[in-house]
Structures are given as C-alpha cells and as structure tokens.
Amino acid sequence: MKKKLLFVGITMNCAGTERSFLSFINSLDTEQYEVDLLLAKREGEFLDLLPSYVRVLKMHDYGDMFTMTGKNASSVIWKCFGRKNPFILFKMLPYAVKMAFNKKNRSKIAMRLWCSFLKKMPMFDASAYEAVISYWGDKTMFYMVDRIKAKKKITWLHFDYATPTRDDELYHKYFSACDNVITVSNSLCQSLTERFSDIKDKFSVIENIIDPNLIRDLALRGDEFPDVHFKGTRILSVGRMAYQKGFDKIAPVLAGLRADGYDVRWYIVGDGEEHDSLIADAMAAGVPDILIFLGTTQNPYSYIRDCDLFVLPSRYEGKPITVEEAKVLYKPIIVTDYLSAKEQLSGGKLGMICGMEPEDIYHAVRCVLDDPKVGEAYSHTLTNEKIGNPEEIEKFYKILG
Question: Of the candidates 169, 40, 41, which has an alpha carbon nearest to the alpha carbon of residue 112?
C-alpha cells in the first residue's frame, strides 16, 4: 500500500521554490508514495506542469493571508477575518502601535501579528498521511505546525535565514515543533546550526534536485530573444522582481557600460512588485532601450541557452536554482557574494563571485567583456563537472524512515 504525503505550498507561480518543487516531485518514487499538494491559492503558471499523480487541494477562505504584503495587509485581513467578525480587528491594535514606535523590528512584529491570525484558521486533519511537508517554508511552516494534525512534520528552508533579520524566538519555537528542518545548502545548514545549537540535530541538507537532461531538452523548445538581429552581448537575469534579487542594481551597471562604449543588452525574466520601479530606474539612468523585460515564462531555459552571460545580483539567497540551471547550460556566470555563493560556484572555479554593490557588478561584467577567454574558461570548466543530483531524493526517503 502506498504511503500518503501532504505537501503544503502557497501558489505555483513562476519562481524558484516552485521550480525546485517541480523537480523534487518529479523525482519521487510514485510506486511508493501518493502525493497531495495543499495550496493557499490554486493559481500560478506552473500549475499545468504538476504531474498527473499530484492531487491539488486548496485552503478555504484564507489563501490571501499567505501572499499578503505590507501594502495590502489591512484589506487582506478585513477580507479573510474582518467581514465575518469586525471586532477581531481590535487584535491588530497592539501590534500596530508596536510597529509605529519600533520601525527597526517592524517585520518581526508583523510576522507575530500574522501568526496571531493564524490561530483563527480552521484545523486540517492530516492523520491519514505518513508525513506533512511545508516545502515553501516560513508561513507554510507556521501553518503546518499550528493548524495541521499530523504524525510527522517536515519543513524546508530555501532562503538565507540570517538575511533579512528574523525573529529567533519565534522561529526557534516552530523549528522545535518540526521533526526535521531541511536546508538546501551546507552553508545555510551550518548557519542555522550555529544559531540554534540546541536543536541542531533537526537540521539536514537536501540540495535542490536538478535534472540536466530535462533542462537541456526544454532549452531547445523555448522562445528566442525578441531582438533576434542584435549582435552585441546579451546579459540575462532570472528571478522575482523583489528587493532580495537586487535587480535595482542593473540600471546603474548598464549606464556605466553604455558610457564606456560596450554594446550590451540586459534582459530580465520574471515579474514582481518592483517591476514598475525597475522601469523607472532604467528611464532615470538613460538605459530603457537596453534593459529588456521578458516577463514570466514556464520555460526560461532557451533564454539561458542563448545569453552570453548570466548574472544574479542578489542581496541574499539560500541556494538559487537559477544558478544551477545556468551551470547545466554551461553559461559564464557572475553572482554576488550571498551565503552559498562560494559553495555553489566552488569558490569561484565555476563562475565569478563579486561584491554586492553596483560598482562591484560593473567591474565583474567588464572583466568578462574585456577578455572573452574568462567566460570561455568558466564554460569549459562546467563541461567537465558533474551536474545533476537525482540521488538527493534518497536523503528524503531516509528522513521519512
């Protein structure tokens, strides 16, 4: 008889965690396991890519809480709770006062407010499942711990816990309530172990599962760059348009490259809350014609295949899957020095690691543009590397027991 697993997610939008989940779930042994996916909101470009053996469930009434931002918090809380019981909004007052007078810790206070409303959501009985896994981590972990009855609870951590600053007391409580906390890189696991040494036995590493054959196959099927006749250098970034990804650094880098006479165009695959501000940045820097927004796509791999240089200017990361995908396609890569950058690029052997500031990225890009042999050497080294890790799924089986 197959063992039943329940995964808890938010949406199937076109983003790194969702792509990681698709790779993971396609590696799972369906002869042994039956899979349900409980989503906060049944939406996203990747929904159609879920394998047929995954049954998708949806949280009732409270899905917007999981995609809530600071800008829409009041309207979301009213929609989910206030219309049924307006007096519940008084619950917000102590937190609102704290946030007004303690801006430094506003994000921590906001998360505690979110967890307080979490208690008002109905319980989900998952006792029929072998295990419940909050693959999206963070809010899905809080929900799993507080609102799901289950034999075994496992959470994933895809991000650098230390950046931005988080509420150690709150996370310690929830990590402790999980049977296992899975991280995606050794450096991330080490960072957590040092911070939460009393529960270090809960932490383990399962890298994002990469299927090189699938990525290379999809790279042959996707769209071409729209400006097919452009003969200069194509620089590509892939990711959600959010502060974390550092895409706001691109416009000043492009302005410097244009001023120095380089024939380049920089493309971004993705979407997000900073889309409009990035357009404004490009206008202000005088580079709107060479910073090109390609939108979201289920298949970014043809763009990675055809670019000349892949750049990820993130402020912080766990272990970004887009960099692994660029490695699969043997691209010259530049990343900023986020937590797992050295681990991911073998200390700089598989790509260039630079500082976080725009001028650092500018000099790194110039280094590759000025000497084509630099990028060629990175690409050649990647062709001799073992890329792909289907064996990572065995670690998950061991955790399940």
Answer: 169
Query: What's the whole-number mean pLDDT along residues 76-104?
Result: 84
What does DSSP assign to residue 360? H
- Report helix, strand or coil for 368: helix
Using the 8-state DSSP alphabet, how is residue 79 labeled? I
- Residue 217's CB is within 10 A of a number of other CB atoms, namely 11
Task: Quickly name the fold that domain 3-210+391-400 has.
Answer: Rossmann fold (3.40.50)
Q: What are the tokens at 43?
A: 């939406």
Helices 321-328, 16-27: axis angle to 10 degrees equals 70
Delimit the domains of the chain by residue range: 3-210+391-400, 212-383
- Give per-residue pLDDT as tens, 178-192: 999 999 999 999 999
Which pLDDT belongs to residue 17? 94
What number does CATH give the domain 212-383? 3.40.50.2000
The widest CA-to-CA distance across the chain, in whole angstroms, is 66
Give the confidence band of 37 by pLDDT, cuts at 50, 70, 90.
very high
Q: What is the pTM of this model?
A: 0.91
Looking at the chain, the whole-number percentage of residues with pLDDT higher than 90 is 86
Judge residue 123's burial from the number of C-beta atoms within 10 Å of its C-beta, 0-12 exposed, 13-18 middle, 19 or more buried.
Answer: exposed
Phi-psi region of 3 (alpha: psi -120 to 50; beta: other; left: phi over 0): beta
Partners of 157 in the β-ladder: 183
The Cα 390–Cα 258 span in angstroms is 43
Rounded distance between C-alpha atoms, residue 307 and residue 329, angstroms: 10
Report, as an integer, the average pLDDT of 170-184: 98
- The token pair at 287 is 């580079």
